[in-house]
Specification:
Strand content: 5-15%
Helix content: 40-55%
Largest sheet: 4 strands, mixed
Shape: globular
Number of helices: 6
Structural class: alpha+beta
Strand order of the largest sheet: 1-2-4-3
Oligomer: single chain
Low-confidence stretches: 1-10
Number of strands: 4
């Protein structure tokens, strides 16, 4: 089994400036940690062997201000939902995207990164997105 490890994580303070908004959103909405982890798996771990030791993932997330307990909870939920598979080697847990998680991620990546838009169906789609402020902040 091939895995990757993070040799040295930058302290959260060093990343605070450019990532402050992202980190604040991660802390405000726990489901975003789940999303971050799936993205890290698909974009960084899958292309490099597909497996990562939980300790490495925790260290990476702590470097951007996401606590180890939140990461463990997210990994537990991802495993329960069938997104990742866990393999224990002694006392260490290694995770990889499950076959279902891999297919779902590759489909999403194809939609996000595909440089060729599909042929137009003749129908319009309208997306209305908020500005990220809550109703009280907008008032």
């Amino acid at each position: 089994m091939k895995s990757i490890s993070l040799a040295a994580a930058e302290p959260a303070a060093a990343l605070a400036g450019p990532l402050r908004h992202v980190i604040d959103r991660l802390h405000a909405e726990p489901s975003r940690t789940w999303s971050l982890i799936v993205t890290v798996f698909g974009d960084a771990i899958l292309p490099r062997g597909g497996s990562v030791w939980l300790g490495t993932l925790i260290r990476f997330c702590e470097a951007i201000g996401v606590g180890g307990g939140v990461v463990r909870t997210a990994m537990s939920r991802l495993a329960a939902d069938g997104w990742v598979d866990r393999n224990r080697v002694g006392r260490n847990s290694f995770y990889r995207l499950s076959p279902r998680g891999e297919v779902t991620f590759r489909e999403a990546a194809g939609r996000i990164y595909d440089p060729h838009p599909p042929d137009w169906s003749g129908e319009f789609e309208l997306l209305l997105a908020g500005n990220g402020l809550s109703e009280t902040e907008r008032a």
